[in-house]
Structures are given as structure tokens and as C-alpha cells.
Design goal:
alpha+beta, 7 helices
Length: 280
């Protein structure tokens, strides 16, 4: 198989039965992702049909022609705690479809099934590790939108044809998923991942069409995610004057909290391993 024939890339990192990261990226811009690269896994996934092609363009440029041309499969002889890395390439559909319904006629890829304490080393193992990190990194803003949609039922204003999947959960469990996700992003701080840069300023709509803007703050390791409604400046000035007047009547001249806050979540540091720590 040749690199120019590739129309779908699948990336997976699995520890035991936990799917740490799973991604499908199509040449037409379709993107599917679950997980954030850490354990316990974040059980939220999303799919955007024929979205931005920039993810594809960045990742395919990262692939060397020889990797596509030379399939490699390796498995440790003795495995007690399995750790699996794989990249699969698909191309040339026989039914004319190039999305989820395609019947691919050409495939290639690299797969390593290892014990978590393996001594095995191979240059392509390091490549898959870097490629998985790169794939997650360039889709972090997209996955942030998926998380906000799942947890708060908000629609990203710039994403069409997007679907979200999450286990049926109580509100407390949803907040636990979000806290886990935020923590795993923060664990990648040394690699340049910044939850504030990823989420701050992202725009959403509620079910009634109200537009909200995300405000992400990291205060000494405690992260809050708030949503503020877009307001007219003239109206905002009037509301501020009314608020000050009310507070003065109550004997308090200092506003203590923004009235635009709709939701908040916090995350504090807890230890967890990321996928690239398992085999080093």
C-alpha cells in the first residue's frame, strides 16, 4: 500500500481491557475519538462527519512512506498485563464510499501487543507513541467541545454533524468524568498541554439558542470551567449599575461574584499514568 492511497487512519492504545485512546481520522475530515490518554479512561466519545481536514493533513504529513509500505506485527511471548499499540491504514474503497460504510480493499499498519513490563524496544514503537500523542494533541480543542456537549448538553457553534456518546450517568458521575478529563490534560503539562488554552473562549449554544462562551481558569492546580452569556455592552453597564445600587442598599459595596456563571467544575491533582509511561 502507498501513502497517497490512504483514506483512513485508525490509532489505538489499549491497556488491559481499558481503551486509553482510540481515534479514526478520515481524509474527508470525519473524526472519531474516545479517551484522553490516561487511566482510568474517560468514557466519552464523539464523532464529527466531514469536518475540518486540517487534522488529516497534519497527521498524514507525520507518516513516512515506508511505514505504510511495510506492515509490522509483533507480540510478546509471555503477557500478564497486555499493552497494545496500533496504527492501521485503509484505502481504495470497492463500493464508492469513503466513510464509515466504505469497503476498503487495501490495508496496512503496525501493531505491537506487549506485556506492560516488556523489555522489547523498536524504533516504530517510539513512533506510534509519538503519533498517538500528536493525534490527541491536535484534536484537543475538538475533544474539549465533545466533553462540554456530553456534560452540559451544549452545542459547539462551529461543529456541524457532530454526535456524542456517553454512558447513562447521574450528574455526579458526569462531573467525575469531567474532573478525570481535566486532570489528564493537566498531567500532560510538560508536553505543552494547557487546559486554559484548550478551552478558554470556546463558544457554545444552549438548547434554547443562547450563546455562551467558556472561561477556563487554573488557580494553583484547581481548574474551574464557567460559561458566560454574551451581552450587549450598554445592557451590561445598566445591569452593573443596578447591581451596585442594590448592593449599596444592602450595605455591601463590592460585587463578589459574576452573575454570568452557569456551570463550574474543579479538578485537583491525582496521580495517574499516561500511555507513554507504560513501556518506558
Amino acid at each position: 500500500m502507498k501513502k497517497h492511497e490512504v483514506e483512513l487512519i485508525i490509532i489505538g492504545v489499549i491497556m488491559g481491557k481499558e481503551q486509553i485512546l482510540y481515534m479514526k481520522i478520515y481524509k474527508d475530515g470525519t473524526l472519531i475519538r474516545s479517551g484522553c490518554g490516561g487511566m482510568p479512561t474517560v468514557p466519552i466519545s464523539g464523532m464529527t462527519v466531514e469536518g475540518s481536514k486540517e487534522y488529516w493533513e497534519q497527521l498524514i504529513a507525520f507518516i513516512d512512506e515506508k511505514i505504510v509500505e511495510t506492515p509490522i506485527v509483533y507480540q510478546d511471548e509471555n503477557i500478564t498485563q497486555p499493552l497494545e499499540y496500533f496504527i492501521a491504514f485503509f484505502g481504495e474503497s470497492s463500493n464508492g464510499e469513503t466513510g464509515e460504510r466504505a469497503k476498503w480493499t487495501k490495508t496496512s499498519g503496525v501493531r505491537f501487543l506487549l506485556d506492560s513490563n516488556t523489555n522489547f524496544r523498536h524504533p516504530l514503537l517510539g513512533f506510534i507513541d509519538s503519533f498517538a500523542i500528536k493525534a490527541a494533541e491536535i484534536t484537543n480543542e475538538w475533544y474539549f467541545d465533545i466533553m462540554m456537549s456530553a456534560i452540559y448538553n451544549l452545542q459547539p457553534v462551529h461543529l456541524n454533524g457532530t454526535f456524542v456518546s456517553m454512558p447513562k450517568s447521574e450528574e455526579k458521575e458526569k462531573q467525575e468524568f469531567l474532573s478525570l478529563y481535566v486532570h489528564q490534560i493537566m498531567e500532560n503539562g510538560p508536553r505543552g498541554w494547557d487546559i486554559v488554552k484548550i478551552g478558554n473562549g470556546r463558544k457554545y449554544k444552549t438548547t434554547d439558542g443562547t450563546e455562551l462562551t467558556a472561561s477556563v481558569v487554573n488557580n494553583a492546580g484547581k481548574v474551574s470551567i464557567n460559561f458566560f452569556e454574551k451581552v450587549d455592552l450598554g445592557t451590561a453597564d445598566q445591569r452593573l449599575m443596578e447591581l451596585v445600587s442594590l448592593l449599596e442598599k444592602e450595605g455591601n459595596t463590592t460585587p463578589t461574584e459574576s452573575s454570568g456563571l452557569t456551570e463550574t467544575t474543579t479538578s485537583e491533582g491525582k496521580h495517574s499514568k499516561n500511555w507513554w509511561e507504560f513501556w518506558k
